[in-house]
Hints:
Strand order of the largest sheet: 3-2-1-4-5
Strand content: 5-15%
Subcellular location: Cell membrane; Membrane
Helix content: 55-70%
CATH topology: Pyruvate Kinase, Chain: A, domain 1
Keywords: ATP synthesis, Cell membrane, CF(1), Hydrogen ion transport, Ion transport, Membrane, Transport
Distance between the termini: 33 Å
CATH architecture: 3-Layer(aba) Sandwich
Protein name: ATP synthase gamma chain
Largest sheet: 5 strands, mixed
GO molecular function, one term: ATP binding
CATH class: Alpha Beta
Order of helices and strands: HHEHEHEHEEH
CATH superfamily: ATP synthase, F1 complex, gamma subunit
Family: Belongs to the ATPase gamma chain family.
Shape: elongated
Amino acid sequence: MASLKELKDRIKSVKSTQKITKAKQMVAAAKLRKAQAAAEAARPYADRLAGVMGSLASKVSGDSAPLLLRGTGSRQRHLLVVVNTDKGLCGGLNANIVKEAKKQAKALMAEGKDVSFYLVGKKGRAPIKRDYAGQIDAQYDTSEMKNPDFAEAEKIADELVAKFENGEFDVAHLVYPIFKSALAQDPTTTQILPVPAPETAAESDSVVEYEPDEEAILEDLLPRYIKTQLFGALLEREASEQGASMTAMDNATRNAGDLIDKLTIQYNRSRQAAITTELIEIIAGAEAL
Length: 289
């Protein structure tokens, strides 16, 4: 049985931990409001851009379509762009993202495809390297980025487009979390290269003439669409990280409180037992005299 001093020290230690988790919870809650607003504000723009691109893409086909739209003509080599966080203490968020990436990798490899990884963020590197050490194509560090920055998304997009144009892969999939609430962040996978054309284009009776032509507009629009997709993924990651962190720290604070209560009861019982033992010894000594 632990001594009274050991119990007292442990209670003190858990209280200190509880103060830290409570502070982290409050910080995450404050950051979550801003991150959530940014992620939600970016979604309509991305949807509208995809609609415009779909309208243009429906008017071009074959060799006249830009490379980023028509693809290499093969679907053998797949690149998984996995967007994880750079910090921990956010529950099972990163584990779920890695799980989704591994699920996609196993499905593709079962079809006989070649799979490689492009890792964004630090926390997903170790578990993926453990199983796919020889298939890590590149890593992108966002640890110095205080807030999601479009310039960072541009750098990632430019690197991916360059690799695609150099023939290093045929298809790229983006694996990232979608923020739904502080309690729910769902990892999802979407194809970003070649840019998937919508299955159905919006029908309209109006005749639209483009200047310059559709191909020239798409040449400029497609890279911008890829950058927007990556920037949206970084925004979703930030909101998901803060939501998951707030929930995890709230649970940790509650668990610390429960542990403090249990240790306090154990301390009081041990203290009472010690006092009772001392009283019995005093009474027994007095009777002996």
